[in-house]
Structure formats: C-alpha cells, structure tokens
Amino acid sequence: MITCTKNNFGCGPIEFQDYQSDRLCVLNGKFLIDTASEEYKAAERLEIKLPDAFRMKKSAVSTAVLISSSEKTRGTVLRCRIDKGLLCIEKLPYWDEEGPLTIVVAAGFTVLGWHGQFTETDYKQATFGPGIKASNNRLVIKDDFVYASIVCSEFPSANSGYGPFSIKINEMPEDVDAVVPVSLQSGTYSKGQVGSWLGVARIQGGYLSMHLDEEASNLGGQDSFFIFFAPRHQYVPRVPGVGKVTVSTEDITCSKKTTVESVLLAIGDALGFGSMEMAFTQVDSSEGMSFTIEEYPDYAKYAMVMPVLSRGDYYNYEYCVAPQEVSFSEFNKSIALHNMINSRTRNTKVFDTSLISDIVPVNNMY
Amino acid sequence: MITSISNNFGASPITLKCHDSAKIVVLQGSLVIDTTNADYQAAEQLEITFPNQFSIRNSKPTTAFLVCQKDDYKSGTIVKAQIQERKLIIEKLPIYDGQGIVTLILASGFVGEASEALLAPASSAKITMSGKDYTVTTTIGQYANCIKEQWGMFYLLMSSWSYMPGIENEYNITGLPSDLCIDVPVFVNGSNYAIPGSDCALAHIENGKITFTGKGQAGQTKKYLSRAFMKFFFVRGENDIAEY
To answer: Is the predicted ipTM greater than 0.90, yes or no?
Structure first.
C-alpha cells in the first residue's frame, strides 16, 4: 500500500494498493474529487505525487475511470500515466456539475518505449457462481498481481430488485482485495447520452461484490463488463468467530421492488444447520432477491452457502418448486437468495432446513 | 424405524426411517393419502403421532414432498413439516384433493433453535453420474453431498439429463453412501397444465443407481428433464425400507 499525500486538486491523502517492478507497476484504489474545490478548478490535469521511492518514474499511457454522481452514475475512461514521479490523470470537465466524481485506478503501467522482447502471457477462463456468465473471458494470475478482462452474457441487474450481491469467481486468488470499475450499460445507449453507466465493485476473498441501485432500470445485466489490474497479497480473511446467525423481518432492508412479508433465518451449531422461513413478492423472481441486515454477524462468511427449496406462483403456474441458494456478502453486509433454475414466481415462500455446504460447481448450468 | 400410533387423516400406521438426536431429527419414508377420506377432509393440518417424543420438542419448519399422478402426468410440490413433541405436523395443501390418492414423501431434516458454534460449511463428497448405457446422458451442474455418520443431505442440480419416455431409465451415481436407499421426487423447471405444482419424476436411489420411469409413451424419442434438481435428507442404514 502506498499513500500519496500531495495532489493538485484539493483531495486528502490517497491510498493505492501497489505492485512495483522495473517493467510493470500496478495500482489499485479510488478517491473522490470535490469539483467545487478551487484547486480542482485551477488544475489542467489531475496530478498525484507518488512516493519518492516509487519504482517507475515514467510510464506508457494507461486508464483510470471516472464515475459521476449523475443519474445512473454515468462516466467514462480517462487517460492516466506516470510522468516524473506523478500519477497524471486526464481532467474531463463534462461531469463537473454532477460531482463529487469518483476516480478509480485499477491499472497496470508499463515502461514507456519498451524495445525488448514481448512474450505471450498465459491466461485462464474464469468461471463464476450463480449470477454471472462470461461471453469473453481472460484472467491472468501472476504471483504478485492479477489482470482480468471479462464481458458478461449474464450479470445481476437492478430490474427485478436484486440489489446487493456477492458472486464467486472460482479461479480468483483469495488474497485479492481490489476495487473494480464495472460497466453496467446493459441496454442500448439513449439519444444524447454521454458516457456509460458505471459502478464500482469490490473483489475480495475470491468474490465480486456490488450493490446495484434497486430503483434503476436496465442497470447491469447482459453485456456488463469489467477490466482491471490488482495487486495480490491484500485480503486477509476474517478470523472465524463463534456465533450463530439469526435474522428476522425487522432486521432487514430490501429494495422497493421486493416486498418481504416475513423472514426468519437461523444458522448455528458446528454442523452448520440452517433453517429459513420466508415469504416475499416480486414482479419476477427468476434472478433472485437480496436484503441488507442492520447488524451483520462477523462470522457470516462468503463461503456460507446453503441450498433450500422454494414454492411459488406465477400466473397459472402454481405451487412450483425451485432450488434457491442462500448466500452471504461480507462486503455488502447482505444476504441473497438466488433462484438456481431462473424460474419465475411472483409470490415465493421458503420453509426449509438445510446445511451450509460446500456446493461444488461442475458444469455451466445451461 | 418408528411407527406411528395414530393420525388424523385416516391412513394406516406409518413407518418411517428415523435418525433422532438432540441436534437433528431426520425422517425418511413415504405414505399414501386418500383425499376422499372423511378424516382427511375434516383435518386442518395433517398430524401423525408417534409413541415417543422426539429429541427435538419443537422443530423449525422444513419441507416434505407432495406428489400426485393424473393420467400420464406427475406433479409435485413442497409442504411445510414440523415436529411438535410426539407429533409430526404437515401442512394440508388441498391442491390435489380432486385427484384421489396422493403421495407424501418425507426426506426431511428437522432442527431446533440455532446454537452458537464455529460455523463452517459442511464438506461435500465428490459425486459422478452417467447413463447406464449410451442411450441417455447426464451432466451435473452443481451439487452438495454432505455425508454424516448416520444421516446425510444431498442436493443436485443438473445441467442436462436425458431419458427415454415410458420405460425405466437407469443411471449410475458414485459418491453417495452405499447404505442410502430412498424414493424422492426429481423436480424440473416446468409444470403440467393439468395439475398444479412442478412437473416431476419419482426417482429411486439405491446401490449407486438412480432409476425413474420417463414421462411419455414407450417408443418415443429421447427427451430431457429441464433443469432437474433434487434436495433431500436421508437416514443411513436401515435398508429394509422396502418393507413399507
């Protein structure tokens, strides 16, 4: 981790996770810009002074991502490079009236004008837990950093009220703890639209977590994509704690698109017994639903996944059964119920006992 | 095995496989309900009374399966089941009442109040699955196969599962305990228009084999169970389940 104490746009100290070598440096972090600040207004480009010991003094061009506070958080990519010990980011004033601006740096910086040998880098195809499928997929895992470029054929969307979520990236090293800009531009661009709909995800412990704006439409879904560099050796899993999970209706907050009539969830015992009793209504539950809990129990881990059965109705199809996966998001402090067969139900009931289990993925579902 | 001493819906004595402990009670077996029976019609909920109290006096709710056959169609759903002292209480769901006989299948785990512990996911033993011969194929999507000394929980979601209509289809499955013997519904993502609930097949699992009779007429071409899944608890040992 490096801390950059000086910049020319009036921001406090900025921290980046870092990986440094002679030929490649990786920075990962984000910061907020107050566009009303006098320093920002006076700046021609954004300059962040890197620590004196930073290994690379001058780099080829890379990217940062600007996310405005505008409706649907529109934004775009910015030029970004290291120059004379400064991290220099293009100033793009289009969204200055819609601050504060979030700038995400999740980039790799290479030596400017490299003349040596180029070698091909091995990459993997990432696979995911329920909710994400990739149509274009490259994951590079090195000893000290990762790079991913993933375009999704399936990605959670805000359409049906699936707000906070955490989804496993099976091949992602668990020591990554990175911010990741995500393009959520799933629909077509509207006439006159400037920029793409963007959001910030967090990858930690091998899970990608986000909280979509449940009130938005067409945010996320198919064609969402993310491209990022991130250093490794950052995420330290929480020390397991002794406890039990008990959640009831009054403890939760859910999107307006989902009406939760009742929730009773209890998980305990060393064997990980879980019982869930729940009733909720959605326009379409084919994706799933999620809710945040006020006091998230420390010992509710990403890995605590539990299969349960649900019963639901959709027009003339009544009392239909579906397998649901109950999962926890440490980052979002939320619990999700994911419909594993994407069946559609408006009124859904769960009353099942199960075990938090190691659910083994074997093949893509469909 | 436990055998009921009474029930409120006019059924004969009911015998179930039972694992009874302070932490979990697992009940496994099936019974037939005659929905034309006057006792059944008068009942608000189905109550089965056993001679002794279960170790868990009042359990959390869990699922039992209700399966109905109408002509060539088989549909099923889940109903709520709970233990209350000596009784097994089952939700009465009247959706199949016009169909005469329905089957209630218990493959259920019952737990009490959650107690504090170091929570860790139960590990899954590896499974594989294949058609008995090349006429049918299977592809597993995901599974959880939690095997304990005297009971277990199994969850399976298939990516693809083909079958031949009108005949018994047999598949090999490895990784389940050799003493597992159970009849459970395999649900699919779809309904039969004729009756509520999910389209399902009734599968028998024993000796590393899953068998079920494929929906349709013998001689028809190969068909697929769409997004088929099953989830159940089972009692290990006591393999004389065929007696009831």
So the answer is: yes
